[in-house]
Specification:
Length: 308
């Protein structure tokens, strides 16, 4: 069976680990969000691609959900000693090696998709990880604070501001000129099922769907999504701040309507959200907390069952 999943950061990566164990014989292609990507100290950092690669490759810092396990921060501290900014984004020493390889290959002219394949040759994630695009498309957030109305990089809003300042607008800069990376549309066309993990519906899944051509390709398929909202709150992360930014209520029903029945054929919700419904979408309620690998695999299995 060929499965394609659109994935963002921590929740998406955790779910994919369960999907991989629920369907060990399936060919899984992950289309990764690159809207979070940022250039720091001359290095290109791809947080959501790295979170999927490290989580499925066994190198993730489990409690953080990002960065490497057993990290040190010697370089970060030295940069701080020189007063280098920003100091609010923690790059670990091992993680920096990934960004050096990526940046060196970018400078040599390799597309991000080829670089991601090369990095995954080491990590062996057990899925094919393709960035949503090889072109530059970055999520920026318009805020209005004591420094006035301005756009900041998503990471500054997310990490430095902890999404505490309301986002007036969330913009994927470069989206209109971005093309799906090689293999993305082909993987979707050949897929038996598309699964939307409980990633952030706005800045992860929503971002990927903004790359011209991807939403249309997904809509043609059997698509099952897993609600990232349980009982009116996100399980982790700040999907509520993102949903509020686009005027959407933080509920399993509202996210179902945000994705819509053109996109979704099935929607998994938590038992607390029994009763969520939308014409044309089959909704199933079951436990959705990814408390451990077994629970996560069960959720993934339920999503595949619903797709069937
Ligand atoms: N998230 C944080 O909250 N604080 C950090 O210092 C931080 C550093 C960081 C470094 C590399 C990386 O790949 C991810 C990192 N993240 C950090 C997570 C990052 O903000 C992700 O984009 C979000 O978690 C959303 O996926």
């Amino acid at each position: 069976m060929r499965i394609v999943s659109l994935a963002g950061g921590i929740g998406g990566a955790r779910f994919l680990r369960g999907l991989r164990s629920a369907a060990p014989d399936a060919e899984i292609t992950v289309i990764g969000n690159t809207g979070d990507d940022i250039t720091l100290f001359g290095l290109r950092v791809c947080p959501d691609l790295d979170t999927v690669m490290y989580t499925l490759g066994g190198g993730i810092n489990e409690e953080q959900g990002w960065g490497r396990t057993g990290e040190s921060h010697v370089v970060k501290d030295e940069l701080a000693a020189y007063g280098m900014e920003p100091q609010w984004f923690g790059l670990g020493d091992k993680d920096i090696a990934t960004h050096i390889v990526r940046t060196q290959m970018l400078n040599a002219g390799y597309p991000l998709s080829a670089i991601t394949e090369a990095l995954c040759a080491r990590w062996q994630p057990g899925v094919r990880l393709i960035p949503m695009t090889d072109d530059r498309a970055e999520t920026h957030v318009v805020i209005n604070d004591e420094q006035g109305r301005r756009a900041v990089h998503f990471q500054e809003w997310w990490v430095r501001l902890r999404a505490s300042v309301p986002a007036e607008q969330i913009v994927l800069v470069g989206a209109d000129d971005a093309k799906p990376a090689p293999g993305v549309i082909e993987a979707l066309d050949e897929a038996d099922v598309v699964i939307l993990p409980p990633s952030n519906p706005v800045v992860s899944i929503g971002t990927i769907l903004q790359i011209p051509g991807i939403r249309e390709a997904v809509e043609k398929k059997t698509v099952v999504g897993v609600s990232p909202i349980i009982g009116g709150a996100p399980v982790r992360g700040m999907a509520d701040a993102c949903l509020t930014a686009i005027g959407v209520e933080t509920s399993a029903q509202a996210v179902l309507e945000l994705y819509g029945s053109r996109l979704l054929d099935g929607w998994l919700v938590a038992e607390e959200d029994e009763g969520v419904a939308l014409e044309g979408v089959r909704v199933v309620a079951r436990p959705l907390l990814m408390t451990d690998p077994q629970a996560t695999a069960d959720i993934a299995r339920a999503a595949l069952e619903l797709a069937r």
